[in-house]
Each structure stands twice: as C-alpha cells, then as structure tokens.
Amino acid sequence: MNPPIKLVHPAEALVLARVAPAVRERAAAVRLMLFDVDGVLTDGGLYYGEAGETLKRFHVLDGHGLKLLTQSGVKVALVTGRSSLIVSRRAAELGIADVMQDVRDKSAALNEISQRHGIALNETGFMGDDLIDLPAMQRAGFAASVPNAPDYIVQSAHWVASRQGGNGAARECCDLLLAARGRLGSYLMAQPLFGDGVIQ
Questions:
Q1: Per-residue pLDDT averaged across 136-152, rounded?
Q2: Whether residue 93 has pLDDT greater than 50
Q3: Exposure class string for 37-66: b at 16+ Cβ within 10 A, else e
Q4: For 73-86, what is each residue's pLDDT tens digit?
Q5: How confident is the model at residue 193 (pLDDT cuts 50, 70, 90)?
Q6: Cα–Cα distance between 194 and 198 in angstroms, integer?
Q7: Which runs of E-coded beta strand occur in the chain?
Q8: What is the pLDDT of residue 6?
C-alpha cells in the first residue's frame, strides 16, 4: 500500500521552489531564529536628532512574519550591536522576550540563548548583514542574509532574501521557515482573504 501523498499548499510550493533541498532541510530544522536589527529589520539608516538617535524604520511585513513564526512554535530573538529603547519597544509590540542589545560577540549570544532554551546549535538560525554577525552565522545551523550586505557576508549565508533589509527581507525568511515546516499554508487557509485583525 502506497503512503498517503502529502499535499503542499501552493504558497509553500512557491516559496520552496527557489530554495535548494539542502537549504530546505536546514530551514525545516530551525527551532530558534535570531535576527540582527540594523540592516536586517531596518534599512540600516541611523536617524539622529540633537538628543541622539530618535528614529528607526521597521517594516510591517517583517513584524507580521515574526509573529507568525513565534505562533508556529519557533522561538524568535533579536540580537543587536547597538542599544536603543526603540528596539525594546518594537520587540514588546511583537511579543519577543529574547532581546540582547549592545552585543559585541553575537556568536556567544547565540550560544547563550540556545542553551537557555535547550536547543542545539544545528536547530538555530541567524539572519545578519555585517562582519559582527558573521561568527554567529557560521555557528548557526541556518544562516540568512540580505542582498545589500557586503558580498563576503552574502557568500557566507545558506540563503539570501530577495528584498533588502528593512523592506521585507525578514518576512521572506520567516515565510521560508514556515514553508519548510509545512506551516505557511495553514496560516493562509486560516485567514480571510480580506479583513481586519492582522498583527503587524
């Protein structure tokens, strides 16, 4: 008797069609995903007033993706080399409790957070865009980046978004992780095509 055929939602098939099987396997194994902030969740711009940094620009698509990822059971953390109350506020809006700021050693941060949750390093992911992110990207089981990162960072990633940092790149990453786990389609079927109530 043949095993039942597993149906794949068209949206999942679309996301996964552009991803190599080895990368899909890495993405499917992720139980903890860490994101850099500046240049990944933002466009990398630093907006200063007389009192110091006053603004960061986040993208609502990224926010919704991070929420969906958390709801699917994947733990999400933010790790940034800078320190900002704006990051704390955005994390609180999205329900992200693991936030590490002013971090110089992101590889150590990855190790600390993964140990705290009892998750093996090959079940972690890290999305970064610069030299400070590289050690964590090399240590994680799944390394992601953005197309506007330096070439040597892009070449070190298992997967690179098509959208730039701060413009939906993190959402692409979240969609990939959800699709690889077979969870993206369930969210699409559960949501009305048009309607209110989407958390961004």
A1: 98
A2: yes
A3: bbbbbbbbeeeeeeeeeeebebbebbbbbb
A4: 999 999 999 999 99
A5: very low
A6: 10
A7: 32-35, 47-49, 52-55, 75-79, 98-100, 124-127, 142-145, 159-160
A8: 58
For tokens 């389609």, the residue is 185
Structure confidence at residue 46 (pLDDT): 86
* Token pair recorded at residue 199: 């958390």
> 176: which 2 tokens?
């990939």
Residue 71 to residues 132, 152, 174, 179: CA-CA distances in angstroms? 29, 33, 11, 14
Enumerate residues 6+ apart whose C-beta is below 8 A from 29. Answer: 122, 123, 141, 142
- Say how far apart CA 149 and CA 31 lie, in whole Å: 25
**Could you tell me which residues come within 8 angstroms of residue 71 by beta carbon, excluding any fewer than 6 positions away?**
none
Output the six-digit token pair for 117: 């949750």
pLDDT grade for 195, boundaries at 50, 70 and 90: very low
The whole model's pTM is what? 0.89
- Residue 5 contacts by C-beta under 8 Å, 6 or more apart in sequence? none
CA–CA gap between residue 197 and residue 191 (Å, rounded): 10
Strand locations in 83-166 (E) = 98-100, 124-127, 142-145, 159-160
Identify any residues that bridge with 53 across adjacent strands, giving them in sequence order: 48
